Amino acid sequence: MIAVPRQLVLDLAHREALGVEDFLVSRSNSEAVELVDRWPDWPHPASIVIGTQGSGKTHLSHVWQLRSSAGLVAASAITDAAVAALADGDALVVEDLDRGIADEQALFHLLNRAGESKLAVLLTSRVAPGGLEFVIPDLRSRMRALPFVEVQPPDEALLKSVLVKLFADRQLTVEPPVIEYLSLRMERSMKAANRLVDTIDRLALAMHRKVTKPLAAEALASAGPRNEHE
Fold this sequence. Notes:
Layout: H1 30-38, E1 46-51, H2 57-68, E2 71-74, H3 80-84, E3 91-95, H4 104-115, E4 120-125, H5 137-145, E5 148-151, H6 156-169, H7 176-185, H8 190-207, H9 213-223
Parallel strand pairs: 1-4, 1-5, 2-3, 3-4
Helix pairs in contact: 1-2, 4-5, 6-7, 6-8, 7-9, 8-9
């Protein structure tokens, strides 16, 4: 049998949508969404969003960033000079506390200014404040006193909605049974959904095939074993 050659697929990146209209809400993220929706009427000027990689916390923090006109800095890059440059009334997203903090004193100063109601701060982490290690004792106690909300891994309903939207963004028509098949077998994370849809899109184009269960199965197989904790 002569194998049918696959069409050459150009390596063109698909931009991840991070706008307000692209954020889908379900029970798994409703508490964190409520936090963002309540701004600027927050009970505390600084809050933490906790979530595993791929849970959607980066998207949520981006929604708040757009809403509040906040700046953005990785915790691993924060400096005292950057904090000092913030004007009263500014807002700031500090991402990925669990990946290391460049300057604990700078973060402490930031939270002090937030405590004086001069700044609004949203921090993100894959680990709850109690599980983070700090050298400065006062920073440790300050962090543990902050309110936090947790973004759970997407539930089945949210995962299905995300898949439908991602396929629609790529102008791919996918029948509900295929969405059901994928949602029950794939890793439960936003990152995995984006990666899986990208793989299916490439396979469908290369093989000139519609998105069917066999094609979905091939994409799942190429993605490797399911990992709930990535």
